[in-house]
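Comment thread on ticket #2218

A.B. wrote:
> Attaching the input chain for the structure job we discussed in standup.
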Amino acid sequence: MKFKTIKKEYQTTKTSFKKLATKHSIHYKKIERMAKKEGWVKYHNPKATTPPTHTTKTTLKPTKQPNPKQPIGTTEKEVISELREQITGEWGKAFFDSICEEMKGKFYLYDYFTLLMASNFYQDSIDAREKAPNDLLSISEKTGNKFVSAEYNLHISATTQFLKLTKQLGLTPMSRQKAHLRTLKKVGNNTAFSPKPNSHRNIKF
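C.D. wrote:
> Ran it. Output below, let me know if you need it in another format.
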């Protein structure tokens, strides 16, 4: 009989198990077990309704933030001129000019700094290739063994860095090769990449 009274109170008032337990001098765990066993339904006030939520349409102005990909605009020529002066040789400058002409209006500020590094690696690669022996190998004075020359290793290293940077710029192998051919034509000296005897690697830009 006690549980019927407790059940009725639980389902018709907002009281809790603990309050009912105190009122009827019974442990609240017993009430919980009985409620779970019989599937008591907690009190719900049918008159209580959730107030409607009114959504007000507001237009928020976006906060202006600096865009790192914003085109340079009027300062583009000045930036290109300053960066070009930091290139170490005529091959690098010619390549820099060729890419600037091809990508005009498509580059952002940080792209020109990447192009500067790529152009210097391009120059280093050519310088090292020109200094490497014709057969790309050096002979040890002590042992007489042949090994890849230090200059050719430098050429490989510089070429690898150059290719990575041009990839960052979004240059395709075809556009990179076209820029290289334009550079050869402009500088007027293609001996650096003419076929050399016993070359064990075929390096292409």
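A.B. wrote:
> Thanks. Noting for the ticket: The chain is about 55% helix and 5% strand.
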